[in-house]
Amino acid sequence: MASVQLYDTTLRDGAQKEGISFSVADKLAITRKLDELGVHFIEGGWPGSNPKDVEFFASAKDLSLRNSELVAFGSTRQSGTRAEDDANLKSLAGVGVKTVTVVGKSSELQVTRVLETTLEENLNMIADSIGYLRAKGLTVFFDAEHFFDGFKTNSGYALRCLEAAAGAGAGCLVLCDTNGGSLPDEIAAAIRAVRERTVVALGIHAHNDGGLAVANTLAAVAGGASQVQGTINGYGERCGNADLCSIIPGLKLKMGVDCITDAGLAKLTEVSHYISEVANLALDASLPYVGSSAFSHKGGLHVSGLAKWAESYQHTDPARVGNRSRVVVSELSGRGNIIYKAREMGLDLPSRGEQVKRLLDQVKSLENRGFQYENAGASFELLVRRAEPDYRPSFELVDFMVVVERRRRLPTSAELEEMLSEATVKVKVGGEIIHTAAEGNGPVNALDHALRKALLQFYPSLAAVRLVDYKVRILEESVGTESQVRVLIESSDGVREWRTVGSSANIIEASWLALADSLEYWLLKQKSDREKGGKEDG
Ligand SMILES: [Zn+2]
């Protein structure tokens, strides 16, 4: 089994993505997480380019990394200067790491048109810079920028750049598809050509502009590259960098190339989600291997196949990358989806019984009215529970009233105008009817306050539940203010998160339904936790 070293550049190249701005604390947190994952190298930043990266490297000295080595990034000296006078190289040498990556040009046109220097001077810049850093005792990786484009237009010169780097003692020649437009067979052919000319290790750094960064990376490994550079979730400028979350399982599970431990691989989904949290970017649900939809099944045929044989509609076992299969319930579902989903909740529904048919009919009729259970697993679970003959809800709504009012505090001052909402709620808990009222900054907020006020008397622990997200969608089937409205609510108690749905022609009623489901679901879970733990309510 061949082996490959993983080089993560989320903190440097990945941070170039629009919308990402990592603080030093963010970078330290991500470094710790990447170390847990077990990548070989973590590129921390470019100390010559900004003070934040200098501060990061200073703080990172206190991290005791178990698996990964921190690498600093910089570029070759400027033309017409001496390496020992170059401020960028000096800060790279002094940043306190053992390995550095130096980027230099390897394309004739880039040298003459962009760098505006001679081809010979560029070779000297590469050799001098690497020589200088080697003399300081550092391991140096050479990032050959625009290598594949350069190889296409003038392969002789592109190879001379690599020879200059190798001759100066570079430990790895990293071939870059900087503009991200190469095809896998072009990458493989270029790698093979380089492989024949040098014994120095080769690396691949691919961008995703053609949607091929992962394919290009795997093609490079097949051709002999032994270091792969990429970012978590494919973060990076434009269309991003090669996504390590696809590359790692691709190497290990599909190509049999050793690059990470089984335990590390099983952390991949967690690491992907964690880093998207730190980056404050919603994770694309359809990301291969790690996305929440990567192993979710909606079609009835797929689900019934899956129930018989797990691999029937999955290319790999989701558990190996720390993800899991998920079945979504929708009007497209068959009985199999309902049964599978119920089984996830620990309920065994008989496959031919009336109960399943009734539930399926109910889902279809509710979806007709605008409900959607694909992203509202908690509402679906309540639907199943409510169909059980012995189900007792923790509360029942008798009625509610909401008043929305625009008030002017002083007759002359328009600035003190405010919107006020007040809700009155009547709910039944056990045999008792409770009547409460509360204000809020909007009608839904007021309803939420009034309902909690009523329920907290009976269920004090409900105080832990908060609304994390509230989404309203106008359904296309109808028009204007008469439209059917769907409300999706995401709630959390700090430990678990759940989603509920409500739908109505009235936005307040739709919100109420989703809100009431959210609290009822949580109370149901508390009850079953207690029953499992055999504890009394405290
Ligand atoms: Zn790059």
Give structural attributes.
single chain; 538 residues; alpha/beta; eight-stranded parallel beta barrel; three-stranded antiparallel β-sheet; 18 helices; 16 strands; 39% helix; binds zinc ion
Structure description:
The protein has 538 residues and is an alpha/beta fold. 39% of the residues lie in helices and 20% in strands. The chain is built from 18 helices and 16 strands. The chain has helices spanning 24-37, 51-60, 87-93, 108-115, 119-135, 147-153, 155-167, 184-197, 213-222, 244-254, 262-265, 268-279, 300-308, 335-344, 354-368, 377-386, 443-456, 507-533, and strands at residues 5-8, 41-45, 69-75, 99-105, 139-145, 172-177, 201-206, 227-230, 296-297, 326-327, 396-408, 417-429, 432-440, 466-474, 485-492, 497-504. The strands form four sheets. An eight-stranded parallel barrel has the order 1-2-3-4-5-6-7-8, surrounded by nine helices. The protein has a three-stranded antiparallel sheet with strand order 11-12-13, covered by helices on one side. Strands 14-15-16 form a three-stranded antiparallel sheet. Helix 5 packs parallel to helix 7, helix 8 (184-197) packs parallel to helix 9 and helix 16 (377-386) packs across helix 18. The chain is elongated and about 90 Å long. The model has no long low-confidence stretch (mean pLDDT 90). The structure holds zinc ion (ZN). The site of zinc ion has 4 residues, from loops. Zinc ion (ZN) binds at residues 13, 205, 207, 241.
